[in-house]
Amino acid sequence: MDFDYFYNRDTERFSFYMLPKILVTEDLYKNLSSDAKILYACLLERSSLSLKNDWIDEQGRVYIVFTVEEIMKMLNKSNKTAVKILNELDANTKGIGLIERKRQGLGKPNIIYVKDFMSVFRSECKNYTSEVKNLHSGNVEITLQEVKNLHSSNTNINNTDYSNTDFGKGQTGLGTFQNVFLTEKETKELKEILGYQFDNYIQRLSAYIQSTGKTYKDHKATILSWFYKDQGTKKADKPSNIPTWAEYDKGEHL
């Protein structure tokens, strides 16, 4: 089959499933099959739609409906294989625990809670912070080496705080978690600069904000700083103390 090339910004007309990079690079997720990771990306996309449609339970948790038949069709798998892939993600079937299924009753499809793939790392960050506090508040003598050892064993954890900014007025929440805010003008300008990569950077920032709980003064500037950093030869229009994507990618946010 003879596929044509992409020209200019042809790819902007497509929609994409966003697979979190950490599912590929982090040791915790190394044993997940590629099919399971792709399925999780599909479930994340469905979660975003559920949130927009207010599919939220009494505890404030977003849930989705995604049948085995849909998985079979989407991944081109048999029923047995589709169930196996789904089980990889569910802790109740000895999977990793990225989803939780709940039965609704006879003849009704299960509802699925898609869990936050970064939440375990935030828990590690809290434990690390608690350890540091205990070291400094305890009555025992703490040596410099002991403090160094604790910090070196948690090199992927960073608990830096950023100022809270009130977003929302005249802006639309973007990304999987609807936490990236841009004005119409900013959106247009970023699309002109980023082209087909616009959605990718929106999802990067959305996942980063959700995983760390941090906020930013200027989402457009953050995206541009990541973009220019990725280019390698360009620089952002203005200096910023916001971590670059490369720094986030190295794990300094954890």
- Tell me what the CATH architecture of the largest domain is: Orthogonal Bundle
Number of helices: 10
SSE pattern, N- to C-terminal: HHHHEEHHEEHHHH
| Overall spatial form | globular
What's the CATH class of the largest domain, please?
Answer: Mainly Alpha
Q: Count the strands?
A: 4
> If you consult CATH, what is the topology of the largest domain?
Arc Repressor Mutant, subunit A
Specify Rg, calculated over alpha carbons. Answer: 21 Å
Supply the number of structural domains: 3
Provide the descriptors you would attach to this structure in a database record.
254 residues, mainly alpha, Arc Repressor Mutant, subunit A, 3 domains, two-stranded antiparallel sheet, RepA_N, Replication initiation protein
Give a structural overview:
- This protein has 254 residues and is mainly α.
- The chain has three domains: 16-114, Arc Repressor Mutant, subunit A (Orthogonal Bundle), CATH 1.10.10; 119-152; 172-249, no CATH class.
- It is built from ten helices and four strands; from the N terminus they run ααααββααββαααα.
- The chain has a two-stranded antiparallel sheet with strand order 1-2. A two-stranded antiparallel ribbon has the order 3-4.
- Strand 3 (172-174) and strand 4 form a beta hairpin.
- Helix 7 packs parallel to helix 9 (219-231).
- The longest helix has 19 residues, at 34-52.
- Residues 15-89 form the Replication initiator A N-terminal domain.
- This is Replication initiation protein.
